[in-house]
Amino acid sequence: MNRINPFYIGVTLLVILLFLAIKLGSVKSELKEASSSYKETLKLSTDLSGLKEVYSNKERIKKSLQRILELSSLSAAKIEKKSSNSGIVISSESINKNELNSLMGKILNGSFNIGALKIKKLSNTNASLYMEIKW
């Protein structure tokens, strides 16, 4: 009676095989979740690196802004531009509404990181402007 019954060995192997099959299924589902998470992270990182290229190029932003401020439609506006290490501040004590529309159309259609924007109506035709563009 010291021998182990082969039936018990077979049942034990069958239970181990069943346990491993269940574990394999759960590992497969975890792998699918990790793979989808990796794809989402890869897409996000690609998008962020593209945004970084667009918004952090200091020289490109300066040139684009200078081109906008030199437009003939903005020549009559007294726009002050102050540069710093963190960005550029554009301000005007009194700007015509047509000039303001032209400036805002160009700025908002461009790829600029606007930190602060304050527009205050002074009269029906004039307003004051304060805008910070950061990089």
Could you give a short account of the major beta sheet?
A: 4 strands, antiparallel
Give the percentage of residues in beta strands. Answer: 15-25%
Approximate shape:
rod-shaped
Which percent bin holds the helix content?
55-70%
Give the H and E element order.
HHEEHEE
Write out the strand line-up for the largest beta sheet, numbering strands in chain order: 1-2-4-3
- By DSSP, the count of extended strands is 4
Q: What is the terminal-to-terminal distance?
A: 84 Å
Give the mean pLDDT. 89
Could you name the ranges where pLDDT drops below 50 across 5 or more consecutive residues? none
Please give the count of helices. Answer: 3
Structural class: alpha+beta
Topology:
Layout: H1 6-55, H2 58-69, E1 80-83, E2 87-96, H3 97-109, E3 113-121, E4 126-134
Antiparallel strand pairs: 1-2, 2-4, 3-4
Task: Outline the structure in words.
This protein is of the alpha+beta class. It is 56% helix and 24% strand. The protein has helices at 6-55, 58-69, 97-109; strands at 80-83, 87-96, 113-121, 126-134. 10% of the residues are buried. The model has no long low-confidence stretch (mean pLDDT 89).
